[in-house]
Design a protein that fits this description.
Blueprint: H1 13-17, E1 49-55, E2 63-69, H2 71-93, E3 98-104, E4 107-113, H3 115-121, H4 125-128, E5 160-166, E6 169-181, E7 186-194, H5 196-231, H6 239-265, E8 273-275, H7 277-291, E9 296-300, E10 307-309, H8 313-327, E11 331-338, E12 346-353, H9 360-366, H10 382-391, E13 396-399, E14 406-413
Parallel strand pairs: 9-11
Antiparallel strand pairs: 1-2, 3-4, 3-7, 5-6, 6-7, 8-10, 11-12, 12-14, 13-14
Length: about 425
């Protein structure tokens, strides 16, 4: 091989002119300005370069050297690495569950999930990454996360509501999906924002507005009607109408008591714990027998197991018992046992009577399947209070088939060894 020669100067002139001198012929000479990276076009700056030596088969004797300044490439790579780090930090710190999926043969496959996803759904990255999104879900239920399938993800800014079972019970999420093109495949982000509390707050306000206004109006209209009858009696005693006024006034006062119970049921500081549902039911039934000796209440607690609740469980059981006596027959049956569905995780306190049962429209409204309106809002606050008592401890209200008579169940979570000691 010949020498590296510069036609404008002696041997070594090219190497000497390179940033960093001869050492840069190996591409490893770097010297930076104090306080920052080398400036492009700065002849005094030192930075990474690439030198290619090309032999020539022409009349020209020697080698041709081509120098590439790699400073910008190195800076770009460093900036991309910093951006990846910033994105990963943001991805992990977003308080909403976020997933990143890749579409493999048209099926969404988890490639990444953030910390909030594991906290909400109970599956961390090691358990879900690499699995099809539609495979996840509890036993006995259809696969979850179908909203991540290609045909389900809407256009940008589209959103949909869906429900998922979480560590805190069944929750409602606002789902937003965004498709994007990855390095070599179609991918998508899915973001799950928990809107349960906002929706419940709106519903509670509508319930209180509709029911209280309806009941107060009815009760006060009745009071005024009976008062008019008393006024028309020309001073003659009218014990019957006076008694009716008293009863209606007592009903109005009871509305105030129910509002106070609602405040307790909706308290965010409630502390669920392990309770003995059989003992709670026994106390409620004993009190009921003193005030309603004409009613027969049979209790089957042979299969009772500990449940997660608090002191308001007595109120919920009492509401169902009162409702059964008021609208049903003189005989009420209460059964405490693991739920038919998911018996390993749920406990039912089922109250049955021989009456016609709760009307379909009212069941639909209280159950959340029918919107609250001036016409459809349930006859009273009792069922609403019961529902909110249960939801505050991770339970829910379950209505039985109409063929089963007036059957309503308080479905609670089964307690385990990790739950605190019962309050009683």
């Amino acid at each position: 091989m010949g020498q590296l020669r510069d036609r404008a100067g002696p041997p070594g002139a090219i190497a000497a002119a390179l940033p960093g001198g001869p050492r840069d012929r190996r591409g490893d000479g770097v010297r930076r300005r104090p306080g920052g990276p080398p400036r492009t076009g700065d002849p005094t700056a030192r930075g990474p370069v690439e030198l290619s030596l090309l032999s020539s088969e022409t009349e020209f004797e020697g080698l041709v050297g081509v120098v590439y300044d790699r400073s910008e490439l190195t800076e770009t790579r460093a900036e991309l690495a910093a951006q990846r780090d910033r994105f990963r930090n943001l991805f992990d710190r977003v308080p909403d569950p976020v997933v990143d999926v890749e579409f493999v043969d048209g099926e969404p496959v988890f490639r990444a999930v953030n910390t909030a996803f594991g906290a909400a759904f109970g599956d961390d990255a090691d358990e879900v990454v690499g699995r099809p999104a539609t495979d996840l879900g509890p036993a006995g239920e259809d696969g979850w996360f179908h909203e991540l399938e290609p045909g389900e993800i809407r256009e940008r800014d589209g959103a949909s509501e869906l429900q998922r079972e979480t560590a805190d019970g069944r929750r409602t999420f606002l789902f937003r999906g965004f498709r994007y093109r990855g390095d070599d495949a179609e991918r998508a982000f899915g973001i799950y924002t928990d809107v349960t509390e906002q929706l419940e707050q709106e519903r509670r306000l509508r319930v209180l507005h509709r029911v209280l206004r309806h009941n107060l109006r009815n009760e006060m209209n009745a009071i005024m009607g009976y008062a008019d009858l008393l006024s028309a009696a020309d001073g003659e005693p009218d014990a019957g109408n006076a008694g009716k006024i008293h009863d209606k006034a007592a009903g109005v006062a009871e509305l105030g008591n129910q509002v106070r119970w609602i405040e307790r049921a909706l308290d965010r500081d409630r502390k669920p714990t392990a309770v003995d549902p059989a003992a709670v039911v026994a106390d409620v039934v004993a009190d009921h027998r003193e005030t309603h000796p004409e009613t027969t209440v049979r209790v089957d607690d042979a299969d009772a197991v500990p449940a997660v609740a608090d002191e308001l469980l007595e109120l919920a059981v009492g509401n169902l018992l009162e409702n059964a006596v008021e609208h049903g027959s003189s005989t009420v049956e209460i059964e405490i046992a693991p739920a038919d569905t998911d018996p390993a995780a749920r406990v039912d306190i089922a109250v049955r009577d021989g009456g016609p049962g709760i009307p379909d429209r009212e069941r639909a409204v209280v159950g959340g399947d029918r919107e609250i309106t001036q016409v459809d809002h349930s006859r009273g606050l009792g069922l609403w209070v019961t529902r909110w008592v249960l939801e505050g401890v991770g339970g829910r209200l379950v209505f039985g088939d109409q063929s089963d008579g007036g059957s309503v169940a308080l479905r609670l979570r089964r307690a385990n060894d990790g739950d605190a000691t019962a309050y009683r």
